[in-house]
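Hi P.,

Sorry for the delay on this. The queue was packed all week, but I finally got your sequence through. Input first:
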Amino acid sequence: MGLDDHPSLLILPYPPNPPTRYSLNAAYRPSLKSALAKVSRPTGAAQLTVAIACPVLQGQFIRSKTLSWPDAQTLVAGIYDLIAVLCAELSINIEVNGGPGSVDSTIVLIDDDRNKRYPVDFRPAIDPNNTVVVDMATFASSHFPWNFIFTVRSELGFQVSQAYLKFAEGRQNLLQSQLVPVEGGLVLNVAKSDPSAVAPQTSTYPAVCLGGTFDYLHPGHKLLLTAGALLLQVPRRGDRVPPCRYIIGITGDEMLRNKKFAEYVQTWEERARNVISFLAQLLELSPRGWKDSTSPQIEEKDGDFTATFRDGAIHVHCVRIQDGFGPTITVEDIQALVVSAETRAGGQAVNEKRAEKGWHALEVFEVDVLDAEKILDEPTRKGSIASKISSTAIRQQRAARGGTKI
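Then the structure:
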């Protein structure tokens, strides 16, 4: 496996406060644009991991740390939105396995703040906690090797990249040409009226569910899957509790036959494998890096794929669904459901069905919508960019190119 086949890493410093679409655009556009342009290559698809250092978690001890789910998913949504806009500007395909010139981007949140000081004898945990967010040392020790590592030219960018490189030392022999500095943007921070105020912390759950088509996995899908993963209550090694379960309903092929450009819809099996492979980048931690985590072991049955991560602490279960309810009305002990604006009404219908069965209602969490209009002011470009984010648009592009039908 050559270096070109490895993912590249962009380490972004702390986000602006508040992290609105406009402030994220001002802060991160130059860095993201440079990294995307650099990794895109005409000979094949490329991967880019975007690691954002930020104080995501609250609490002193890893066992009891929590996070504000609305704040975390809003940050992820803003960055994926910006990536989609930039890829449209650069004519870069954004879906997984998008072919030559495409860039498959993944956002990772690193729990870190500018005042954090690690003791000299600090060792990364490589151990589950109650969220998928990990500290800088654990990230550096479990994600490698890289093709390029992009660092931001700014005081905070230097501070974050040096912290990363310190913990990554010895994991990979880097050439100077692989360390690529990129320009930073303008970071604005508005002082809070009450600096001590902490956003309400979100409960985590042993069983989380969501559903979708996941055709040509793209940033909107990645946001949904990441948002659901943030809600998982991952047991620690040694805890005598069952593994947490991430149940993902994926629409069956029969239900998609009336979609536009239906002949280009990926098979259920391919969509399920792409979902699990993407989640492996978020959920797996191994001191051996990609050697262990790039190809998750999937138990494949007809319409039922399962994979485990973190030594069995996390079970991902992809099931074929043939209606709007899927496992939410067949598995009683699900606690949380993640929806988008498009499926909000479905969440309400699910709870009504569960009530009819005498089951507890699910906690429903709604992710933000990816929307280029929240970033760009030019009305002539809004529609053209926003339209590229959907699976329908990707299928249409493949039809126009005469791509292979599934």
